[in-house]
Design brief:
heterodimer; A: 842 residues; alpha/beta; Rossmann fold; seven-stranded parallel sheet; six-stranded parallel sheet; 33 helices; globular; B: Purple Acid Phosphatase, chain A, domain 2; nine-stranded mixed sheet; 16 strands
């Protein structure tokens, strides 16, 4: 790392401060100071450990020290009374952490700079005071920016912001919070036209997306880009795939075979982070590690559903060096400094090259030293995926997702917020919003529909005009109908709609033969999704908070559990990886399989597996798609290998079963993983294909994304869940608030019912459009499915077989483990009711 | 169908119902969620909650304004099919006391045509404690016909022949690891609770403690509404939310 001390841009006290520490300002820190001095918004791309955060704040600290010197006595001098620098981070914990880290240099240099945080946890009196006496630097979150901008006092506070620092920008822009942020930034640019945006980001696939995000896109047809400063990665990471003597399983996600190896790795290193993909995996690995923890090493568990107090304890123990290892999900992925980590173990598939790089970056916050990481594939396909990820990491390949299109539900929330602050002109607001890179595509008629939605629900039937929330005045401005609406808005700000959660409380078991009612007041272990608990019947056991628990009952908004005596939980809660396999890695896996010359890098047993596939069936080609059909017990299977991720495969499975049903193939169900999809039918598929009664080209025709998709979606519970999120964000239904939960499960209007009514009566409603956009982009992965169908057109290889092929085994083993789709609800009801008849006759 | 009815020559065969006895009187349960008392040619429907959308819109929650239309269309289909001599609406017919006043003119006209040529009883409910305005029909707090008593809210303690609504019963069963929750009729042979008929009405699980004073624990049955039939379950087969 070359350092360029530049005497001209650093004031004396800063130079002295650097010198006292034996540091010199790094080149990118100096470059950022220079760019901002010229008033240019800038994107800083740097790996973990490069002093990114300090770089972001240096220009502001210099300006603030300068102002105070010029006007002694008047600390905030000529720049009015507002905030000078806004720092926005995706996590409130990060904001608090950064504030702490920033206090030190400010105190040491004796700068008269006031730094404060503002998050959901900030007490009301402090928020009020901040509006009266704003700090110089305010550290906050996108939701708080939206709140400040919806209120005249908050607007005044931000009226002459000079710099906005956006930390972990690569993570912020991938969600609806990024949309909320983008809209807020557009407002800030109106308030304070000279504001400079500083984006801090890890390495991404398309830096230009982030550069455009930072700028006002006011030139038609031209994409304006911010300046960019990038720091090349430090030492290349030292990554290995675990070479276990044990047999790598065909399927599953537990990586149990490698536990002894993982344990010895933990023992041999100072501090280890063990990353897994899902909460339940974390629970399982933690539980299993403790079973073999003969040395009682301090190993802790950290995931997003655990009680906050418990998480803070783990974090504190980690920071003070008391822990040997933490088993964690992505709740630990971001930013916060945990001190020295010597090794990162990634269990399961990495799913994306960039994701892996960021996790590995956590191994060392000193960028000049190589980070050390070990990848532990949980099954054979994951070995291939790990291999592809390792190669990507060696060549610096990135696969962060492309910039998303701004969501309409977030836009609706923003429009109401704007109206709460002051009456607005629709034309001006439209132009302001279109200046966001992520809302460039917005057309005027959609925008007008959004305003109509906010005002009266936007229904074709104009029966709610007299209840309108927004009214168009004779002056041509839209304003809120009454102040109550602003209060309502403030309670509903934000884009994070949690699945309804239940608290998990430990009680004494009913099973111990006590006749008394369950005791109350046990300790709360954390929170768990309502839908998960709904599947349980009293007595079922499951893993949570590192223990095997017995489900007792639900009381109000709490799930009561007791400590179970069982040694293995009854209910597997694995729901598949949260993140589908990235396109980039999928291509790597296909390439690896198709080219036996590369197999030498693979473990022997995986090589043998692929070799066997080549002999018994054929190898999938890199550009086409292999379809195998074979009989097994009394059913006929179709297995195809698209390698497009679980979400796209599930959608495809849903559509193919509908089509096969129509063709009379009698499909019974399907199951999908990240690599393959298997459908089973009663009809002999090989025969149908052989006699030309079933054409695979026709089956995988792209038009499957038309009517079939629409028809299936009509009743899909997935769409209903998505709709609920959109309806809450857009403000159609109100959020549940603490204290309301008690009866919330009964009285809130069911969003499913609203969805049904809307679909039937107003299928073009803006919220249904928003729901469709969300589902297509996220849960259904329609675009990826579309690309797949285009890619394989005319390139489908069909291989009829006598029996299951080696490559098909993993996905077939998922049957019974993953939910099976394609059963009609009424058929299940009929069967359940017939059971009863059977019982009666017996 | 309409032509036949106008001709007035045929009494159509009533749609297939699931016959049960309530306090000794035979009643038919229909998969649309209404009860049919063939002997009295009486159709019973509970919890229409008309104008629920506009009730919410008044306080700024803009639910779709189509609930009244949807509910009335379904009601019209049922009335067409049964051609009852009498209709009993078991209370909470309107979502709030001003609901009948807000009812838009076209729906008012439509509802009035449904009321033609038949007796119509509005039983009051907790949402609509007063008689609907500018609509036909008789308004009562409760009504006894033969051995049956019709009221909105079930009275506590054992009651023979009580037919009521109010609770919006729904039942849930589980099979193959999937659970299915549907509105249902609930009965112990003495008392019948009808599912809510309105388009935007949710359901309350019959295993909820609110049902504890209505039915003896585990000694009742639920008839879940299916696509074209009812699915009967004893309480022992049902699960809580």
């Amino acid at each position: 790392m070359t350092a360029t001390p530049d005497p001209t841009c650093l004031p004396d006290c800063f130079r002295a401060w650097f010198k006292a520490r034996g540091w010199t300002p790094r080149a990118h820190q100096v470059a950022l100071i220079e760019q901002l001095a010229q008033g240019a918004s800038t994107l800083l791309i740097a790996p973990t450990g490069a002093g990114k955060t300090l770089a972001g704040f240096l220009p502001s600290l210099i300006e603030l020290s300068d102002m105070s010197r010029r006007k002694p006595g008047a600390a905030r001098g000529d720049r009015g009374q507002g905030v000078h620098t806004l720092y926005i981070s995706p996590l409130k914990a990060l904001a608090v952490d950064i504030a702490r880290n920033l206090e030190a240099p400010v105190a040491e240099m004796g700068l008269p700079v006031r730094i404060e945080t503002r998050t959901g946890d900030t007490p009301t009196h402090k928020r009020q005071r901040q509006k009266l006496v704003p700090p110089d630097i305010l550290l906050t979150t996108p939701e708080q920016i939206a709140l400040l901008l919806s209120d005249p006092g908050g607007m005044a506070m931000l009226a002459d912001v000079r710099t906005v620092i956006l930390d972990e920008l690569h993570a912020l822009v991938t969600s609806k919070r990024g949309d909320l942020l983008a809209l807020g930034l557009a407002r800030l640019r109106q308030l304070s036209p000279k504001v400079r945006m500083v984006g801090l980001s890890a390495t991404v696939a398309e830096p230009d997306d982030l550069r455009a995000f930072l700028m006002a896109q006011i030139e038609p047809g031209k994409r304006r880009l911010s300046e960019m400063v990038s720091v090349k990665g430090g030492a290349a990471p030292d990554i290995a795939i675990l070479d276990s003597a044990e047999r790598v399983p065909w399927s599953g996600h537990s990586a149990r075979y490698a536990l002894a190896d993982i344990y010895s790795l933990i023992k041999a290193h100072g501090v280890t982070l063990v990353f897994v993909n899902t909460r339940s995996q974390a629970e399982m690995v933690f539980q299993d590690l403790w079973k073999i923890n003969e040395d009682t090493l301090p190993i802790a568990l950290h995931h997003g559903s655990l009680d906050v107090g418990q998480r803070r304890k783990v974090e504190a123990a980690m920071a003070s060096g008391q822990l040997k290892a933490i088993v964690a999900t992505s709740s630990l992925d971001m930013g916060i400094d945990w001190g020295d980590v010597d090794l990162v173990i990634n269990i399961g598939a990495p799913k994306g090259a960039s994701r892996l790089a960021q996790r590995i970056g956590r191994a060392n916050h000193r960028m000049d030293e190589p980070s050390k990481a070990v990848l532990v594939p949980a099954n054979r396909f994951e070995v291939l995926e790990c291999r592809a990820a390792l190669e990507a990491s060696l060549c610096g390949g990135q696969d962060t997702p492309p910039l998303r299109k701004g969501a309409l539900d977030v836009l609706a929330q923003h429009v109401l917020g704007v109206a709460c602050a002051a009456p607005f002109d629709a034309d001006a607001l439209f132009n302001e919003i279109r200046a966001c890179e992520t809302y460039r595509h917005l057309d005027r008629s959609t925008f007008d529909k959004v305003i109509a939605f906010v005002a009266t629900g936007g229904y074709a039937l104009k029966s709610y005009d007299r209840y309108a929330k927004l009214k168009l005045g004779p002056d041509g401005l839209w304003r809120i109908a009454n102040p109550k609406i602003a209060q309502q808005y403030r309670l509903n700000v934000g884009t994070i709609v949690e699945a309804p959660m239940l608290k998990v409380r430990m009680v004494r078991s009913k099973a111990e033969g006590r006749k008394t009612p369950l005791g109350r007041g046990g300790r709360v272990l954390g929170e768990i999704e309502e839908w998960f608990v709904e599947q349980l019947t009293p007595g079922d056991t499951f893993l949570f908070a590192g223990e095997i628990l017995r489900f007792e009952t639900i009381l109000e908004n709490e799930a009561y559990v007791s400590r179970a005596r069982a040694t293995s939980p009854m209910i597997p809660s694995y729901q598949g990886g949260k993140f589908p396999l990235s396109t980039y890695l999928a291509d790597g896996v296909r390439r690896l399989i198709a080219d036996p010359k590369q197999w030498s890098q693979l473990p022997g047993q995986v090589r043998d597996w692929l070799e066997l596939q080549r002999v018994k069936s054929v190898l999938p080609r890199r550009d086409g798609m292999l379809v195998e059909t074979f009989p097994r017990s009394d059913k006929h299977y179709l297995v195809c290998y698209p390698f497009e991720g679980r979400l796209a495969h599930q959608t495809l499975g849903m559509l193919l079963t509908r089509r096969l049903e129509r063709l009379g193939a009698k499909p019974m169900g399907f199951v999908a993983n990240d690599y393959a999809l298997s459908i089973w039918c009663l009809s002999d598929l090989s025969l149908l294909i052989d006699t030309g009664r079933l054409s695979l080209d026709a089956l995988f025709e792209e038009d499957i994304l038309g009517d079939d998709l629409d028809a299936w979606l009509a009743d899909s519970s997935l769409m209903k869940r998505t709709f609920r999120t959109c309806a809450v964000i857009a403000g159609l239904i109100e959020r549940r608030h603490p204290g309301q939960e008690k009866n919330g499960r009964q009285i809130t209007v069911s969003s499913d019912l609203i969805y049904d009514v809307l679909r039937q009566h107003e299928p073009d409603h803006i919220l249904l459009t928003a729901t469709w956009n969300d589902a297509a982009e996220g849960l259904l992965d329609i675009s990826r499915l579309g690309e797949l169908l285009a890619r394989i057109r005319g390139r489908i290889t069909h291989t009829p077989l006598d029996r299951v092929s080696p490559l098909a085994v993993p996905v077939l083993l998922e049957i019974g483990r993953e939910p099976v789709y394609g059963e009609a609800q009424d058929a299940i009801l009929a069967e359940a009711a017939d059971d009863l008849i059977g019982e009666a006759l017996a | 169908m309409t032509a036949l009815r106008n001709a007035g020559q045929f009494r159509r065969v009533a749609p297939v119902c699931h016959d049960i006895a309530v306090g000794g009187t035979q009643l038919g349960l229909h998969d649309s969620g209404v009860a049919w008392w063939a002997e009295e040619q009486t159709l019973v429907v509970a919890d229409l909650h008309l104008e629920k959308g506009s009730s919410y819109a008044r306080r700024g929650v803009m639910l779709p304004p189509y609930d009244t239309a949807a509910t009335l269309e379904r009601l019209a289909m049922v009335i067409d099919a049964f051609d009852p001599a009498r209709v009993i609406a078991l209370g909470d017919s309107f979502h709030d006391a001003e609901g009948s006043d807000r009812l838009p003119a076209p729906y008012r006209a439509f509802l009035t045509t449904l009321q033609l040529n038949r007796e119509w009883i509005w039983v009051t409910g907790n949402h609509d404690p007063v008689a609907p305005v500018r609509l036909c029909g008789e308004c009562v707090d409760e009504m006894t016909l033969g051995d049956l008593t019709f009221r909105h809210e079930p009275q506590s303690g054992p009651q023979s022949g009580e037919v009521c609504g109010h609770l919006h019963p729904a039942a849930k069963v589980r099979r193959y690891g999937r659970s299915i929750r549907r509105p249902c009729f609930a009965t112990d042979g003495n008392r019948l609770v009808l599912p809510a008929f309105g388009a935007l009405t949710g359901g309350l699980n019959v295993m909820d403690s609110a049902f504890a004073s209505v039915f003896p624990p585990r000694r009742f049955s639920a008839f879940m509404l299916g696509a074209d039939r009812l699915y009967p379950f004893t309480a022992a087969k049902l699960i809580a939310d």
